[in-house]
Amino acid sequence: MNPLRFGLIGCGQFGAFLARAAVATGRLQLVAATDSDAARADTLAAEHQAAACADAAALLAHPAVDVVLIATPPALHMQHAIAAARAGKPVFLEKPMAIGEHACEAINAAVREAGVNLMVGHVLRYFEPYRAIAAAYRAGKLGRALHLSIWRLEHDFLNISPWKGQRAVSGGYLYEVAAHELDWLRAMLGEPTAIQAQITRQPSSAHQLEDTVALQLMFPGGAGVHYLGGAGFPRNEHGFHLRFEHATLNSDQAFDPARVQVASSTGLTAADLGFGDADPYSIELNAWLDSLATGSPPPITGEDAAQTVALIEAAYRAAGW
Ligand SMILES: NC(=O)c1ccc[n+]([C@@H]2O[C@H](COP(=O)([O-])OP(=O)(O)OC[C@H]3O[C@@H](n4cnc5c(N)ncnc54)[C@H](O)[C@@H]3O)[C@@H](O)[C@H]2O)c1
Protein backbone atom coordinates (compact mmCIF):
# COMPACT_ATOMS: atom_id res chain seq x y z
CA MET A 1 0.00 0.00 0.00
CA ASN A 2 1.23 3.49 -0.84
CA PRO A 3 1.73 5.67 2.24
CA LEU A 4 -0.87 8.34 2.93
CA ARG A 5 0.53 11.78 2.17
CA PHE A 6 0.32 14.23 5.06
CA GLY A 7 0.68 17.92 5.60
CA LEU A 8 2.00 19.19 8.94
CA ILE A 9 0.81 22.47 10.45
CA GLY A 10 3.29 23.53 13.15
CA CYS A 11 6.90 22.41 12.70
CA GLY A 12 8.20 23.21 16.19
CA GLN A 13 9.82 20.80 18.62
CA PHE A 14 6.94 18.39 18.78
CA GLY A 15 5.72 18.81 15.20
CA ALA A 16 9.15 17.84 13.84
CA PHE A 17 9.26 14.87 16.21
CA LEU A 18 5.74 13.79 15.25
CA ALA A 19 6.56 14.06 11.54
CA ARG A 20 9.52 11.70 12.01
CA ALA A 21 7.37 9.30 14.07
CA ALA A 22 4.71 9.41 11.34
CA VAL A 23 7.19 8.63 8.58
CA ALA A 24 8.69 5.85 10.71
CA THR A 25 5.34 4.01 10.65
CA GLY A 26 5.96 3.40 6.95
CA ARG A 27 2.32 4.35 6.34
CA LEU A 28 2.70 8.13 6.11
CA GLN A 29 4.77 10.42 3.89
CA LEU A 30 5.32 14.11 4.62
CA VAL A 31 4.49 16.08 1.48
CA ALA A 32 3.86 19.59 2.85
CA ALA A 33 4.79 21.57 5.95
CA THR A 34 3.95 25.01 7.23
CA ASP A 35 4.94 27.11 10.22
CA SER A 36 4.61 30.80 11.00
CA ASP A 37 8.38 30.60 11.45
CA ALA A 38 9.16 29.89 7.77
CA ALA A 39 12.67 28.64 8.54
CA ARG A 40 11.23 25.77 10.59
CA ALA A 41 8.94 24.69 7.75
CA ASP A 42 11.79 25.01 5.26
CA THR A 43 14.12 22.85 7.37
CA LEU A 44 11.58 20.10 7.98
CA ALA A 45 10.37 20.15 4.36
CA ALA A 46 13.95 19.84 3.10
CA GLU A 47 14.58 16.91 5.46
CA HIS A 48 11.60 15.05 3.97
CA GLN A 49 11.73 16.31 0.34
CA ALA A 50 8.36 17.97 1.01
CA ALA A 51 6.92 21.35 0.01
CA ALA A 52 7.17 24.27 2.43
CA CYS A 53 3.86 26.17 2.32
CA ALA A 54 3.37 29.84 3.21
CA ASP A 55 0.49 29.16 5.61
CA ALA A 56 -2.17 26.65 6.63
CA ALA A 57 -4.51 27.68 3.80
CA ALA A 58 -1.80 27.01 1.21
CA LEU A 59 -1.01 23.65 2.80
CA LEU A 60 -4.68 22.62 2.80
CA ALA A 61 -4.96 23.61 -0.87
CA HIS A 62 -1.88 21.56 -1.80
CA PRO A 63 -3.16 18.81 -4.13
CA ALA A 64 -0.91 16.07 -2.67
CA VAL A 65 -2.14 16.44 0.93
CA ASP A 66 -4.38 13.50 1.89
CA VAL A 67 -4.41 13.98 5.69
CA VAL A 68 -3.29 16.68 8.13
CA LEU A 69 -1.31 16.60 11.37
CA ILE A 70 -1.59 19.65 13.61
CA ALA A 71 1.05 20.58 16.21
CA THR A 72 0.56 24.29 16.71
CA PRO A 73 0.09 25.99 20.12
CA PRO A 74 -3.30 25.06 21.66
CA ALA A 75 -4.89 28.47 21.05
CA LEU A 76 -4.59 27.79 17.31
CA HIS A 77 -5.94 24.23 17.34
CA MET A 78 -9.53 25.34 16.76
CA GLN A 79 -8.77 27.43 13.68
CA HIS A 80 -6.42 24.87 12.16
CA ALA A 81 -8.60 21.82 12.88
CA ILE A 82 -11.74 23.51 11.53
CA ALA A 83 -9.92 24.67 8.40
CA ALA A 84 -8.58 21.14 7.80
CA ALA A 85 -12.00 19.56 8.33
CA ARG A 86 -13.65 22.06 5.97
CA ALA A 87 -11.00 21.18 3.39
CA GLY A 88 -12.23 17.59 3.73
CA LYS A 89 -8.99 16.30 5.28
CA PRO A 90 -8.81 13.71 8.07
CA VAL A 91 -7.06 15.30 11.05
CA PHE A 92 -4.62 14.16 13.71
CA LEU A 93 -4.71 16.95 16.28
CA GLU A 94 -2.20 17.24 19.09
CA LYS A 95 -3.35 17.50 22.67
CA PRO A 96 -4.90 19.50 24.27
CA MET A 97 -7.79 19.46 21.81
CA ALA A 98 -8.40 23.22 22.14
CA ILE A 99 -8.77 25.86 24.82
CA GLY A 100 -12.30 25.87 26.23
CA GLU A 101 -15.32 23.70 25.70
CA HIS A 102 -16.82 25.98 23.05
CA ALA A 103 -13.71 25.61 20.90
CA CYS A 104 -13.96 21.82 21.18
CA GLU A 105 -17.65 21.93 20.26
CA ALA A 106 -16.84 24.08 17.22
CA ILE A 107 -14.20 21.58 16.06
CA ASN A 108 -16.55 18.65 16.58
CA ALA A 109 -19.33 20.41 14.68
CA ALA A 110 -17.01 21.10 11.74
CA VAL A 111 -15.77 17.49 11.77
CA ARG A 112 -19.33 16.12 11.82
CA GLU A 113 -20.44 18.45 9.04
CA ALA A 114 -17.46 17.52 6.86
CA GLY A 115 -17.77 13.83 7.74
CA VAL A 116 -14.01 13.52 8.31
CA ASN A 117 -12.05 11.49 10.83
CA LEU A 118 -10.39 13.41 13.70
CA MET A 119 -8.20 11.90 16.39
CA VAL A 120 -6.68 13.81 19.31
CA GLY A 121 -3.15 12.88 20.37
CA HIS A 122 -3.54 11.90 24.00
CA VAL A 123 -0.52 9.66 23.71
CA LEU A 124 -0.20 8.86 27.42
CA ARG A 125 -2.82 6.17 26.88
CA TYR A 126 -0.15 4.35 24.82
CA PHE A 127 2.84 5.09 27.05
CA GLU A 128 4.21 2.48 29.43
CA PRO A 129 3.64 1.97 32.29
CA TYR A 130 0.31 3.82 31.94
CA ARG A 131 -1.02 1.65 29.10
CA ALA A 132 -0.32 -1.60 30.94
CA ILE A 133 -1.70 -0.34 34.26
CA ALA A 134 -4.98 0.73 32.66
CA ALA A 135 -5.19 -2.61 30.82
CA ALA A 136 -4.57 -4.55 34.05
CA TYR A 137 -7.24 -2.49 35.80
CA ARG A 138 -9.77 -3.12 33.02
CA ALA A 139 -8.94 -6.83 33.10
CA GLY A 140 -9.79 -6.90 36.82
CA LYS A 141 -6.25 -7.80 37.93
CA LEU A 142 -5.96 -4.82 40.28
CA GLY A 143 -9.43 -4.81 41.79
CA ARG A 144 -11.22 -1.56 42.60
CA ALA A 145 -9.34 1.71 42.36
CA LEU A 146 -9.08 3.12 45.89
CA HIS A 147 -6.80 6.15 45.73
CA LEU A 148 -4.44 7.29 43.01
CA SER A 149 -1.85 9.98 43.64
CA ILE A 150 0.05 11.39 40.66
CA TRP A 151 2.56 14.20 40.65
CA ARG A 152 4.22 15.94 37.72
CA LEU A 153 6.28 18.83 38.99
CA GLU A 154 8.28 21.02 36.66
CA HIS A 155 11.25 23.28 37.22
CA ASP A 156 12.62 24.15 33.77
CA PHE A 157 9.38 23.76 31.80
CA LEU A 158 9.38 27.28 30.40
CA ASN A 159 12.82 26.93 28.87
CA ILE A 160 11.10 24.92 26.15
CA SER A 161 8.76 27.40 24.41
CA PRO A 162 7.88 30.79 25.90
CA TRP A 163 4.26 30.63 24.64
CA LYS A 164 3.66 27.82 27.13
CA GLY A 165 3.84 30.46 29.88
CA GLN A 166 1.04 32.53 28.32
CA ARG A 167 -2.36 31.31 29.42
CA ALA A 168 -4.15 32.70 26.37
CA VAL A 169 -1.90 30.60 24.10
CA SER A 170 -1.25 27.42 26.10
CA GLY A 171 -4.38 27.40 28.26
CA GLY A 172 -2.24 26.97 31.40
CA TYR A 173 -0.43 24.09 33.08
CA LEU A 174 -3.51 21.87 33.25
CA TYR A 175 -3.94 22.17 29.48
CA GLU A 176 -0.34 21.90 28.43
CA VAL A 177 0.88 19.25 30.88
CA ALA A 178 -1.78 17.75 33.14
CA ALA A 179 -4.05 17.08 30.15
CA HIS A 180 -1.99 13.90 29.69
CA GLU A 181 -2.70 12.43 33.13
CA LEU A 182 -6.27 13.76 33.36
CA ASP A 183 -7.11 12.14 30.04
CA TRP A 184 -5.53 8.85 31.16
CA LEU A 185 -7.54 8.92 34.39
CA ARG A 186 -10.79 9.57 32.52
CA ALA A 187 -10.07 6.83 30.01
CA MET A 188 -9.50 4.35 32.85
CA LEU A 189 -12.01 5.42 35.51
CA GLY A 190 -14.75 7.28 33.64
CA GLU A 191 -15.91 10.85 34.16
CA PRO A 192 -15.20 12.35 37.59
CA THR A 193 -18.16 13.01 39.85
CA ALA A 194 -16.56 15.68 42.08
CA ILE A 195 -13.61 18.01 41.91
CA GLN A 196 -11.75 20.33 44.27
CA ALA A 197 -8.80 22.41 43.21
CA GLN A 198 -6.19 24.76 44.64
CA ILE A 199 -3.78 26.84 42.61
CA THR A 200 -0.91 29.00 43.85
CA ARG A 201 1.10 31.45 41.82
CA GLN A 202 3.64 34.09 42.77
CA PRO A 203 2.32 37.43 41.46
CA SER A 204 5.92 38.33 40.60
CA SER A 205 6.32 35.35 38.22
CA ALA A 206 7.51 36.16 34.73
CA HIS A 207 4.95 33.67 33.37
CA GLN A 208 1.20 33.17 33.88
CA LEU A 209 1.22 29.49 34.77
CA GLU A 210 0.33 27.81 38.01
CA ASP A 211 3.34 27.46 40.34
CA THR A 212 1.44 24.69 42.09
CA VAL A 213 -1.88 23.09 41.17
CA ALA A 214 -3.45 20.48 43.44
CA LEU A 215 -6.57 18.62 42.33
CA GLN A 216 -8.72 16.27 44.37
CA LEU A 217 -11.05 14.23 42.17
CA MET A 218 -13.70 11.61 42.86
CA PHE A 219 -14.48 9.00 40.21
CA PRO A 220 -17.42 6.59 39.84
CA GLY A 221 -17.07 3.63 42.19
CA GLY A 222 -15.52 5.83 44.85
CA ALA A 223 -11.94 6.10 43.56
CA GLY A 224 -10.21 9.19 44.89
CA VAL A 225 -7.45 10.89 42.92
CA HIS A 226 -4.91 13.48 43.93
CA TYR A 227 -2.97 15.25 41.20
CA LEU A 228 -0.15 17.67 41.98
CA GLY A 229 1.48 19.67 39.21
CA GLY A 230 2.85 23.10 38.44
CA ALA A 231 5.77 24.97 36.93
CA GLY A 232 7.17 26.49 40.10
CA PHE A 233 8.98 23.59 41.76
CA PRO A 234 12.71 23.45 42.58
CA ARG A 235 13.23 20.30 40.51
CA ASN A 236 11.41 18.08 38.03
CA GLU A 237 9.57 15.18 39.64
CA HIS A 238 7.18 12.79 38.00
CA GLY A 239 5.77 9.82 39.84
CA PHE A 240 2.76 8.07 41.28
CA HIS A 241 1.36 6.04 44.14
CA LEU A 242 -1.59 4.09 42.76
CA ARG A 243 -3.54 2.19 45.38
CA PHE A 244 -5.97 -0.44 44.13
CA GLU A 245 -7.91 -3.09 46.03
CA HIS A 246 -5.37 -5.83 45.29
CA ALA A 247 -2.14 -3.94 44.69
CA THR A 248 -0.24 -0.71 45.26
CA LEU A 249 1.92 0.50 42.38
CA ASN A 250 4.63 3.07 43.14
CA SER A 251 7.06 4.88 40.90
CA ASP A 252 9.34 7.89 41.23
CA GLN A 253 10.06 7.88 37.46
CA ALA A 254 6.61 7.76 35.93
CA PHE A 255 7.75 6.96 32.37
CA ASP A 256 10.06 4.11 33.30
CA PRO A 257 8.23 0.78 33.63
CA ALA A 258 11.35 -0.72 35.24
CA ARG A 259 10.83 1.62 38.20
CA VAL A 260 7.29 0.45 39.01
CA GLN A 261 7.20 -1.27 42.40
CA VAL A 262 4.26 -3.56 43.05
CA ALA A 263 3.03 -4.64 46.48
CA SER A 264 0.09 -6.99 46.15
CA SER A 265 -2.23 -9.02 48.34
CA THR A 266 -2.87 -11.48 45.49
CA GLY A 267 0.72 -12.20 44.46
CA LEU A 268 0.62 -9.87 41.43
CA THR A 269 4.10 -8.80 40.29
CA ALA A 270 5.34 -6.09 37.93
CA ALA A 271 5.96 -8.82 35.33
CA ASP A 272 2.22 -9.66 35.42
CA LEU A 273 1.41 -6.13 34.25
CA GLY A 274 2.86 -6.94 30.83
CA PHE A 275 4.76 -3.77 29.98
CA GLY A 276 5.48 -3.50 26.27
CA ASP A 277 8.41 -1.87 24.52
CA ALA A 278 6.73 -0.51 21.38
CA ASP A 279 7.07 3.21 20.64
CA PRO A 280 3.90 4.91 21.98
CA TYR A 281 3.76 7.42 19.13
CA SER A 282 3.91 4.59 16.62
CA ILE A 283 1.06 2.77 18.39
CA GLU A 284 -0.95 5.99 18.49
CA LEU A 285 -0.45 6.90 14.83
CA ASN A 286 -1.05 3.33 13.68
CA ALA A 287 -4.30 3.26 15.66
CA TRP A 288 -5.38 6.42 13.84
CA LEU A 289 -4.33 4.99 10.46
CA ASP A 290 -6.22 1.77 11.18
CA SER A 291 -9.37 3.79 11.87
CA LEU A 292 -8.90 5.61 8.55
CA ALA A 293 -8.36 2.34 6.69
CA THR A 294 -11.43 0.66 8.17
CA GLY A 295 -13.70 3.71 8.29
CA SER A 296 -14.27 3.19 12.01
CA PRO A 297 -14.06 5.97 14.62
CA PRO A 298 -10.55 6.68 15.92
CA PRO A 299 -9.72 5.49 19.45
CA ILE A 300 -9.65 9.07 20.78
CA THR A 301 -12.40 11.09 19.14
CA GLY A 302 -13.06 14.80 19.44
CA GLU A 303 -16.05 14.07 21.66
CA ASP A 304 -13.83 12.04 23.98
CA ALA A 305 -10.99 14.60 24.09
CA ALA A 306 -13.52 17.40 24.68
CA GLN A 307 -14.34 15.70 28.00
CA THR A 308 -10.72 16.14 29.09
CA VAL A 309 -11.01 19.83 28.26
CA ALA A 310 -14.29 19.98 30.21
CA LEU A 311 -12.49 18.45 33.20
CA ILE A 312 -9.66 21.00 32.95
CA GLU A 313 -12.17 23.83 32.78
CA ALA A 314 -14.03 22.41 35.80
CA ALA A 315 -10.73 22.31 37.71
CA TYR A 316 -9.96 25.93 36.89
CA ARG A 317 -13.46 26.95 37.94
CA ALA A 318 -13.13 25.00 41.20
CA ALA A 319 -9.87 26.83 41.92
CA GLY A 320 -11.46 30.20 41.14
CA TRP A 321 -9.05 30.78 38.21
N1 LIG B 1 1.89 14.47 22.73
C1 LIG B 1 3.02 14.89 23.26
O1 LIG B 1 3.79 14.11 23.83
C2 LIG B 1 3.38 16.35 23.12
C3 LIG B 1 4.65 16.79 23.54
C4 LIG B 1 4.96 18.14 23.37
C5 LIG B 1 4.04 19.01 22.80
N2 LIG B 1 2.81 18.55 22.43
C6 LIG B 1 1.81 19.45 21.83
O2 LIG B 1 2.25 19.83 20.53
C7 LIG B 1 1.81 21.16 20.24
C8 LIG B 1 3.03 22.01 19.87
O3 LIG B 1 3.93 22.06 20.97
P1 LIG B 1 5.53 22.21 20.77
O4 LIG B 1 6.15 21.78 22.04
O5 LIG B 1 5.96 21.61 19.50
O6 LIG B 1 5.67 23.81 20.66
P2 LIG B 1 6.65 24.62 19.70
O7 LIG B 1 6.59 26.04 20.13
O8 LIG B 1 7.99 23.95 19.67
O9 LIG B 1 5.97 24.44 18.27
C9 LIG B 1 4.80 25.12 17.87
C10 LIG B 1 5.04 25.60 16.45
O10 LIG B 1 3.85 26.19 15.93
C11 LIG B 1 4.24 27.29 15.13
N3 LIG B 1 3.14 28.19 14.88
C12 LIG B 1 2.67 29.17 15.68
N4 LIG B 1 1.64 29.80 15.06
C13 LIG B 1 1.46 29.18 13.86
C14 LIG B 1 0.57 29.38 12.77
N5 LIG B 1 -0.39 30.32 12.81
N6 LIG B 1 0.67 28.56 11.70
C15 LIG B 1 1.63 27.60 11.65
N7 LIG B 1 2.51 27.38 12.66
C16 LIG B 1 2.42 28.17 13.74
C17 LIG B 1 5.39 27.90 15.91
O11 LIG B 1 6.20 28.77 15.11
C18 LIG B 1 6.14 26.67 16.38
O12 LIG B 1 7.15 26.27 15.46
C19 LIG B 1 1.06 21.63 21.48
O13 LIG B 1 -0.31 21.37 21.33
C20 LIG B 1 1.63 20.75 22.59
O14 LIG B 1 0.72 20.56 23.66
C21 LIG B 1 2.49 17.23 22.56
Topology diagram in text:
Elements lengths: L3 E6 L3 H12 L3 E7 L3 H10 L3 E2 L3 H6 L5 E4 L6 H10 L4 E4 L6 H14 L3 E4 L8 H9 L6 E9 L13 H4 L2 H17 L4 E7 L11 E7 L5 E7 L6 E8 L2 E5 L9 E4 L15 H15 L7 H17 L3
Parallel strand pairs: 1-2, 1-4, 2-3, 4-5, 5-6, 7-10
Antiparallel strand pairs: 7-11, 8-9, 9-10, 11-12, 12-13
The site of nicotinamide-adenine-dinucleotide has 25 residues, from helix 1.
Protein name: Gfo/Idh/MocA family oxidoreductase
GO molecular function, one term: nucleotide binding
Task: Give an overview of the whole structure.
Pfam families: GFO_IDH_MocA, GFO_IDH_MocA_C3. One of its GO terms (molecular function) is nucleotide binding. The chain has about 325 residues and is an alpha/beta fold. The chain has 2 domains: about 5-120 and about 280-300, Rossmann fold (3-Layer(aba) Sandwich); about 125-275 and about 310-320, Dihydrodipicolinate Reductase, domain 2 (2-Layer Sandwich). It is about 35% helix and about 25% strand. Strands 8-9-10-7-11-12-13 form a 7-stranded mixed sheet, covered by helices on one side. It has a 6-stranded parallel sheet with strand order 3-2-1-4-5-6, with helices on both faces. β2, α2 and β3 (about 50) form a beta-alpha-beta unit. The site of nicotinamide-adenine-dinucleotide has 25 residues, from α1. Nicotinamide-adenine-dinucleotide (NAD) binds near residues 9, 11 and 37.
Can you give keywords for this protein?
321 residues, Dihydrodipicolinate Reductase, domain 2, six-stranded parallel β-sheet, 13 strands, binds nicotinamide-adenine-dinucleotide, NAD(P)-bd_dom_sf, Gfo/Idh/MocA family oxidoreductase, Gfo/Idh/MocA_Oxidoreductases, GFO_IDH_MocA-like_dom
